[in-house]
């Protein structure tokens, strides 16, 4: 196991966990979904904080809050940062990452439910376009999975060293 902070930062799982936090920052800052209604010229944009309905002239008609999406994305990013500093307790680090995985799945489900609800409400012909903010969630899920893989490798290495003693 790492003896100091410098060794901890050099571990691959720490890099992947940092990438999870960066991806959640992208999710908070960028659009998640855009739907253009062809016949009326309206645009629906979903970001982590609001679902904006914009008319053809560019005026925002309504902007209901989605604070829970932003709160969940923020919590996932914070949990990834906390997990980086749990390098002395690999079991706790894996548990935090597994909870984080479940929260990210919940985040994806919430976005799908919101977008499908809007599509039903406006009777859209297509499902809209998922933007970089949404794909960042999926990228964070992959990075979290890779971090867990490298943590399991560390655990296996520690067990093999203990067997040798």
* Average pLDDT figure: 87
Sequence of secondary-structure elements = HHEEEEHHEH
Helical coverage, percent range: 55-70%
Number of beta strands: 5
Order of strands, widest sheet: 4-3-2-1-5
Characteristic key phrases:
165 residues; alpha+beta; five-stranded antiparallel sheet; 5 strands; 65% helix; 10% strand
Question: What would you note in describing this structure?
Answer:
The structure is a single chain. By secondary structure, the protein is α+β, with helices and mostly antiparallel strands. It has one domain. Helices cover about 65% and strands about 10% of the residues. It has helices spanning about 5-10, 10-30, 65-85, 90-120, 130-165; strands at about 35, 45, 50-55, 60, 130. It has a 5-stranded antiparallel β-sheet. A hairpin with a 5-residue loop joins β3 (about 50-55) and β4 (about 60). The longest helix is centred in the middle third of the chain and has 33 residues, at about 90-120. The radius of gyration is 20 Å and the shape is elongated.
Write the layout of secondary structure elements.
Layout: H1 5-9, H2 12-29, E1 33-36, E2 43-46, E3 51-54, E4 60-62, H3 67-84, H4 90-122, E5 129-130, H5 132-164
Antiparallel strand pairs: 1-2, 1-5, 2-3, 3-4
Helix pairs in contact: 2-3, 2-5, 3-4, 4-5
Compact summary:
The protein is of the alpha+beta class and 165 residues long. The protein has five helices and five strands.
């Amino acid at each position: 196991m790492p003896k100091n902070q410098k060794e901890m930062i050099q571990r691959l799982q720490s890099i992947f966990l940092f990438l999870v936090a960066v991806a959640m920052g992208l999710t908070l800052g960028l659009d998640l979904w855009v739907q253009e209604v062809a016949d009326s010229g309206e645009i629906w944009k979903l970001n982590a904080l609001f679902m904006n309905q914009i008319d053809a002239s560019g005026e925002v008609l309504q902007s209901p809050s989605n604070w829970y999406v932003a709160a969940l994305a923020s919590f996932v990013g914070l949990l990834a940062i906390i997990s980086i500093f749990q390098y002395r307790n690999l079991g706790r680090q894996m548990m935090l990452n597994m909870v984080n995985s479940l929260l990210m799945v919940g985040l994806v489900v919430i976005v799908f439910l919101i977008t499908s609800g809007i599509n039903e409400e406006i009777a859209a012909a297509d499902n809209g376009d998922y933007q970089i903010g949404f794909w960042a969630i999926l990228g964070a899920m992959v990075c979290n999975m890779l971090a867990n893989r490298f943590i399991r490798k560390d655990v296996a290495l520690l067990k093999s060293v203990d067997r040798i003693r």
